[in-house]
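Dear Dr. V.,

Thank you for agreeing to look over these. As mentioned in my earlier message, I'm a first-year student in the group and I'm still getting used to reading structure tokens, so any feedback on how I've presented them would be very welcome. I ran two proteins. I've put each sequence directly above its structure. The first is here:
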Amino acid sequence: MIPIFYFLGYNTESVSKSGKLFCVQAKNSSGKRITVESDQLLVAAGRTPNSDTLDLEKTGVKTDSRGFIAVNDHLETSVNGIFALGDAVGRYLFKHAANHEAQYAYYNLMHEKKMPVDYAAMPHAIFSSPQIASAGYTEQELKKNNIPYTKAVYPYIKTAMGEAIKDRDGFAKLLASREGKVLGCHIVGSHASILIHEVLVAMKLGAGVDSILRTVHIHPALPEVVSRAASSFG
């Protein structure tokens, strides 16, 4: 297995390239500096809408302060009968979010009584190594909103499959209300983008961690990581 190194809480100060090698220098809030060298460099600086190239003023369709097309809860723009979805509206910049919104846009185009988009349990994943998958609240958001919660974290390596694939860094974190309702799930490790789906179903249905715990999980399969995390709530 290729060694994985990651550094959190650092701000990039400079990036240089010598031959085929990139060199990134960064510093954290304590003043500690690091230098990371790699043969590849990924720059993820976000996305900027190009609505200014669409001549929207000719249609009367309005944009928000960021340049995204302004829509209501039904995805209808400021002009009756014109709908927008996906990256253009700037809500969730994911292909699966656009697919989800497209179903509502189609329905609302075809029916007089319109349906607001339900964004509950909208997930996202990063197909890095290790993979990262997340849905719902983060701990920071729960604390900021003064929402009481409990949490459980379970490492991959403490399951049979986690040991078999030697994933010593992976883990699943479940966040739940005091009543046991799933508030969020965050997974880092092998196949995280797949494992999170059983939690998405529970969240979409408003179910609790007990619904995950009561479900029989195949042994030895990696979803036991999520099951063990659920069992940690006691």
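The second protein is here, in the same arrangement:
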Amino acid sequence: MIRHRISRRLMTLAYIASTGLMTGYTAWRYAMGDYVTLFTPLFMVLVLLAALLLHLCRSPSPYLPRMILLIATYVTMLAAIWQPPDISLVWLGLPLAATFLLLPLWTALSINILLAPVWWFTPLHSAPPSWVMVFLATALLLALPRWEHARRRALLRATDPHDSECDAFHIDALRERLQSECQRAIVLNRRLAVLVIHLPQMDMAGEQFGLRAQLALLEILCHEVRLQCRDYDVLGRAATTTLWLTLPHTSESGALLVRERLTRGLSRHVLVETGQLEARIAACLLHQNESVDQFIKRLENRADVLAAPPDTA
């Protein structure tokens, strides 16, 4: 969630900076008395302002403002290189940088490779042949930071046990932890309880209000679990709308007590988008002589029952 906020702030700065640069470029053209070519950058200022407003107002498609910014960059570059007598290769770096900043790595590489032959038919074809090597070298240099960032993110996903959207374990780490707790309970002859928590408002919140409403629901649930449960109780996300709360050394009465506290605590929270927070919680206990796979299958079946509509559950 913190990474999402930082990324959004960086994109806001990018839109503001691009609008400021285009405004400065328009003012420079006006000051030079180049009124013939003034229309294109002036129109692009309005287009970039529209992209900034779409970004600030949270457009239904997060890629729409980015595509507007990218198209505005290409239009400005094409208008500049078709204006003799001063044609500079520096203009090619502008769409290259914008493509790698606004699009995923492989999409940006594909677009630049496909458009490379197109630049040969522009007025830049009079440039020396070495510009092709300069173009390719610049594209590779711009791709390196994105490739390194993608590599680090993949490494983080492989080593970080937490879910990317909330303070809970992701499904793989959850299954490993649940398996170890089941084996410990069987060996030491101790009780083990798991609360299956289903949030029925998650899908509706995502469809009508987007990711932000879903993250708010998950944040409230994780906050209540931290308040109501012990430090060694494990919360994990088994599916998009389902979480499992593992309660070691807990009897059936203790699990029901935790369920009651969680239900009461969650009902106190009211969101503007979804109203009073709703949660369906069921308690499952590990039976004697029950294998780990059988117990996990039973948890999955209980989650399916909770996710079913009330008239069919």
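From my reading of the second output: The first strand starts at residue 192 and ends at 198. The chain is about 65% helix and 10% strand. Does that match how you would interpret it?

Kind regards,
E.
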